[in-house]
Amino acid sequence: MNKVQVLIVDDSSVMRKIVERSLRQAGIEIEKVFEAGNGAEALVVLQDAKVDIILCDINMPVMDGLEFVKQLAGVENAKGVPVVMITTEGSEGHVVRALSAGAKGYLRKPFTADQVKEHILPVLAGKS
Amino acid sequence: MSLSTPNSSGVDHQSWHPVLVLSTQEVFETMLGSKLEVASEPPPDDALDVTGMVGLAGLLCGVLTVRCSMRAAGRMASKMLGIDADKASPEMWDAMGEICNMVAGNFKNKISGLGDGCMLSVPTVITGGDYSCRSMGDSTTLQSNFLFEEERFIVALQIHGQ
Asked: How far is it, in rounded angstroms, from Cα A116 to Cα A25?
């Protein structure tokens, strides 16, 4: 797999760093990481940045992850870019809502590096 | 683990205590690589400098808090990020909020009916211990004391309404 560009959307800077570290531990080669603290910031980032995958929290201030995923449909740079939700909201209802909104995967916090590998590698492989 | 639906009659909230303990232990083991032991005594009040809080609303209303010393909070951030404690200090508040969020989320996902029926707030972190917190309604509190790297800390869930 080629090196990837990643957008990590989470209101916690600690969690953004943990997600990045977990991706590297999972053996995913990263060219560049873009970060955003909520969905609205992520939409701004995507005006200029082209990424291979978006990893997104659900509960965030300003614009939550589900609204962000819905709004991605109108973003040129996000066309065909898979989104994986990474969140504490682990109920079946949340999973269904996230997948219905357009997410391609779902990972519950807390997570291990193995779970990151299991959930994100197939999504990246599917994209390529 | 699933327990009875929270709003069903006769639910003894104290029966959720083991779930709170397990939820906390799982977060620390998975995200910090630390095996938590349950402590028999809480830390002294003057050692509780940092409080992380997450509100719960819906089928279950309440507040989940994680309280610890500044030093313990710094160590938690250090373990989460895999960096030295002195470098992790600026991330301490954020780490505390995220630990609180994950414990609350993990807890509600283990109780049948709460996953979809209960929402979490964005976390808040308070520094300083000289404050009191008063609920506007009847409440029950589940509290567990833990030992993390020789530092005791408290995880409490205050449940509003009965």
From this structure: 9
pLDDT in tens, B100-113: 999 999 999 999 88
- pTM exceeds 0.80: yes
Q: How many residues does the structure list for chain B?
A: 162
Q: Are A91 and B26 inside 8 Å of each other by CB?
A: no
For chain A, the domains span 4-127
Q: What is the pLDDT of residues A62-93, one digit of tens each?
A: 999 999 999 998 899 999 999 999 999 878 88
- Asked if B115 and A93 come within 8 Å (Cβ–Cβ), the reply is yes
Third-level CATH fold of A4-127: Rossmann fold (3.40.50)
The CA distance from B85 to B76, in Å, is 8
**Strand-pair partners of B38:** B146
| Residue from A15, A18, A14, A55 nearest A34 by CA | A55
Task: Tell me which architecture the domain covering B16-34+48-160 has in CATH.
Answer: 3-Layer(aba) Sandwich (3.40)
Instruction: Please judge whether B120 and A89 are an interchain contact, meaning their C-beta atoms are less than 8 angstroms apart.
Output: yes
Residue B30 near residue A109 (C-beta atoms within 8 A): no
CA distances from A23 to A28, A31, B140 (A): 6, 12, 40
User: Measured between CB atoms, which of B77, B82, B105 is closest to A88?
Assistant: B105
| Complex ipTM | 0.87
Q: Which residues of B touch A (CB under 8 A)?
A: 26-27, 30-31, 77, 80-82, 91, 94-95, 97-98, 101-102, 104-106, 109, 115-116, 120, 122
Give the minimum alpha-carbon distance from B111 to chain A in angstroms, rounded to a whole number: 10
